[in-house]
Specification:
Number of helices: 4
Helix content: 25-40%
Number of strands: 4
CATH superfamily: Glutaredoxin
CATH class: Alpha Beta
């Protein structure tokens, strides 16, 4: 779903993956195998995870243009979750 979202994202929306507790080699295999079209960043020391208060994986953060976290999903996302969370960024 994130791949589809990235491919159909309206202007101004970016999907970014952060790899937590993984290697660059594993990440590259995943990106290649699934054709991931969005930026995928490594977090080798886990600092991003700490900064965002990660409690487990997967977790998804919806961040607005100002850098404010507007929504947070712990666990697997559904399309309905994505749509609802994106509305919190876009507003009414």
């Amino acid at each position: 779903m994130l791949v589809q979202l990235a491919r159909r994202a309206p202007q101004g929306l970016a999907v970014v993956g952060i790899l937590y507790q993984d290697t660059a080699e594993n990440a590259q295999r995943f990106v290649d195998e699934f054709g991931v079209p969005y930026a995928t960043l490594l977090d080798p020391q886990g600092t991003a995870a700490i900064d965002y208060g990660l409690t487990g994986i997967p977790e998804t953060f919806f961040i607005d243009r100002t850098g404010m976290i507007r929504a947070h999903q712990v666990g697997v996302l559904s399309q309905a979750d994505i749509d609802a969370k994106l509305r919190t960024i876009a507003g009414p």
